Amino acid sequence: MPDEPSEDLHSFQVDLRGLVDLLSQHLYSSPRVYIRELLQNAVDAVTARAKLEPDAPRSIRILVHEGGLRITDPGIGLTEPDAHRFLSTIGRSSKRDELAGARQEFLGQFGIGLLACFTVAESIRVVTRSAAAPDAPTIQWLATSDGTYSVERVAAGQELAEPGTRVELTPRAGAERWFVPERVVELAREYGALLPYEVTVEHEGRVVRTTDSPPMWDRAYPSPVARRMALMDYGESVLGFAPLDLVEFDLPLVGIRGVGYVLPQPANPTESGRHRIHLKGMLLGDAVAGLLPDWAFFLRCLVTADALKPTASREALYEDETLAAVREALGGRIRDWLTELAVQEPARLHAFLSVHAVGVKALACHDAGLLRIMLPYLEFETTDGRVPLTEFAKAHKEILVAASVEEFRQVAAIAAAQGVGVANGGYTYDSELLFQLPELLPGVAVEQLAADSITDALDPVDPVEELRLAGFLTAARATLEPLDCDVILREFQPYSVSALHVEGRAARQERTRAEAEAESEGLWAELLGALKSTQPRARLVLNHRNPVIRKLAQIPDPVLLGTAVEALYGQALLMTHRPLRPADTALLNRAFGELLGWATQVARPATDGQEAA
Ligand SMILES: Nc1ncnc2c1ncn2[C@@H]1O[C@H](COP(=O)(O)OP(=O)(O)OP(=O)(O)O)[C@@H](O)[C@H]1O
């Protein structure tokens, strides 16, 4: 009979122990979340009842006793069918609408929270009376960790006097530490300090209130200064560092309120996003990522949010369109805050930028409006020192941008002495911002620094004098030919610099290629050889004003002259702060060794003479 329903159709069976292991080892970071799940159910039950009876009681009580823990709420309660439907079906929740999904007003939504209690409990007993069905009897649902449960009416005399629910846990062997009264207080405080209803923990007659709402940012203060001080102190006590400043957040549309605290030290951009977030009063976590745009890595937030969704572990934010919109809105708020500081409190802005300029530069790269506002405050490394570009541009209508820190160091002293304006574009974001300058400051030109820009700015030597030194220059060129370096003579400031090693990007690439070719064999070496470039080579620019150069030009001994030129080359290389190639180090050692040898030879006859006398 093919149309008969198959007798092979079965319902899934769930192995509770396996499921609890899965939850505790892969979903929740620690069994400690059991308190959060109990509190969450109690809060949701109170919220649900308040919708029916706005004046119903709201206090939630936890009692820690020898046999375990009991949490009592005056919430909506459950009828017997409810207990079968919701408590006994994993994944089913009363807090979802078939159409709308999770309901805004509740914390829970997944229908798995109660299972978290099995990570620490041997048995869970729920004694409950429904507020929705006034005549419904008090029932008891008892589940044990072997995966079985029973539902029954409680015995006469044991009924609850009022609607609500009492959940009782007995500890599992080995999990007793999660039931120590101090720990329960600590966990209730950690997760539930900002819950909207009062929560108390009682042990041996001592009652501790663990809620402390409304949050600090929702309280009234006598003055803005008092408010700022209270929020700063609160931030320090919760985050463990004294914040540099704070930004307040208030996005009513998504129910976000709270404070972003400015880190007192430069932050690591890769460690951004460690925020302490409460969803509807319940702590989601204290290192939650994804709330702010990546560039805002200088802030740590303490916020409450109503409309953001948690992941099933309730330890991270669920990434959806709402979260993306929130991130953008909070980014906008941070930007406005910076703008307000620039206009109203430049001293605070300076303090902020002295630590977090990189974050602001990152932001300004994509926000011309902000860059315009920040330009007078953001400092850049230039040949005039660390100055804002507005100031630098007053002295230099043409700004050259060095592509790397190394290139900047190579030319900075010389360029500064010739009055050429060079900015260091080697730091992250700086180059991008520098090239936006002409749009913000009309009349200012910005160009990439080329190796020739500096040599071109140096004064040529009188042709007659250059001719006189032709022999010396030829000898110097012959010495540096094997190193692929040209030699030219110029006059420049400061006199103390004897020689400059100038190398454009093309020359640097050619040098790397040549090195690779020298180290390779066979086809690879041939290929590299074919790539040999005819681009300009590196140059050693000798300073004709430097007394050492003038003296060297008079050395008659070609060997000593060669060694001296090598030493000059080495010294100029050292000035570039570039890491030396093994060949350069060898050259330096050899040149200085030989010079020392010469020096001692020159010194010896005099000494010998003295000894003889
Ligand atoms: N204290 C309580 N009062 C009334 N009903 C409760 C209580 N605790 C649990 N329930 C019922 O049991 C259901 C399942 O609870 P459980 O904690 O497993 O999931 P949830 O709260 O719905 O969702 P989540 O997994 O996100 O916590 C709830 O939807 C609710 O109907």
Automatic annotation (TrEMBL):
Gene3D superfamilies: 3.30.230.80, Histidine kinase-like ATPase, C-terminal domain. GO terms for molecular function: ATP binding; ATP hydrolysis activity; ATP-dependent protein folding chaperone; unfolded protein binding. Keywords: ATP-binding, Chaperone, Nucleotide-binding. ATP binds at E37, N41, D73, T165. Belongs to the heat shock protein 90 family. PANTHER family: HEAT SHOCK PROTEIN 90 FAMILY MEMBER. This is HSP90 family protein. It comes from Actinospica durhamensis. The lineage of its organism: Bacteria, Bacillati, Actinomycetota, Actinomycetes, Catenulisporales.
